[in-house]
Amino acid sequence: MGHRQSDELEQLLTLALRTGATAAEVAQERSFSQPVVFEANRLKQLETSDDTVTALRVWRQGRSGVAVAGGPVDPQILVEKALGLSELGAAEDPLLTDGGLEVFASVGNWVPVDRLIEWGEAAIATIRSAYDEVLCEASFTCETNHTRLINSLGLDYRYEETTVSGGLSAEWVRGDDLLAVEADGIDRTQLDPQGMATSVIERLGWAEPTAAPVTGQLPVVLMAQATDLLWGTVQAALNGRRWVEGASPWQQGQAVAMHALTIGQHPDRGPYSCPFDDEGTRTQALHLIVNGEVAQAYCDRTTGQRLGTGSTGNGFRAGLGSRTTPGLVNFWVEPGEKTLAELLKELPEAVIVDQVVGGGAGLSGELSVNLELGYYLKRGEIVGRLKDTMLSGNVYQALKRASALAAEATWNGASYSPAIVVEGLTVIG
Q: Helices in 109-217 by DSSP H: which ranges?
């Protein structure tokens, strides 16, 4: 980040304190990205996005206010707005993190646009060499983000990260039947577009025949890209704020899942690595569930204060203008020992869930979704695609009746997870 911009943020902080704030914090995010988009098998558009967002948060007379600006900042206007909003704010202590200047090591490598185009063209060509009647869409993006956080206690943290991501889909129309298969990837330096294309081709093959409807409580295999049906509830139940409210059904030391399930957070790994949270607390590795037992919750500063544990470095904001709330960095599910192919071979009968329509169960754990893409497995072999099928049940009960985790794990959003075999869910065909 340039010297001029650094001075601007420091001047903004100084002006806020001189104008009446008793404490202040400035956060800035700068992002530059170049997405490449393909539609109907062809390159559709190239874009460039260069955005800067700055947020000033002040405390005056025991109340806080925050003002946000996009692009160039007028310090006087932003300070006046933040102080004015503090008059309407709720009573709040400025739980700021003290510290000094620290510039964290940059991560990731920039991927040029011509390489992104090559990836998209090659992946689409690979899919259409196997299924020439499908329509493919793809998007590949390289993005660099600069984050800076300073406050009136002297903290000045800076971090730069580069991420490359991609999504690939194929739509296959057969009469009145529409089949859509998706694959994606994300990394700091390199993607595997051919691997994404191979995944799409394999799943198109699985879905080409249609299986007869099935109903009942069958074993269910949640593919890695569908496991958030479980992990969304797990994250909600481990949220320290839910513990403070007494809303979570879990507590420390409670056995909640099969012994093989170990879940944690690894903020120094993968494409979502992050050295500090939005409150300026250093992130850290966490052991959340160990061998099926709850080990701890994750907290921001306010929640950690109420629980008596202190912050775990998990205070994040949905946007720079919002309040912090506990959130995870790199939710990590430890893989199992057998490959997915080996697990499938061992199952006499199962429903494989690939893509779903509908959200997760949330804290309640009550799940009800439609299968956008799912398959019926018989004697270790995939019979075909299941159409017009629903999945329902309780996530907490399914976790207790989980039986196996696959050895392969992939990123699904900010969750790193293998496929998982569970029982106790009801399939309705």
A: 113-130, 193-207
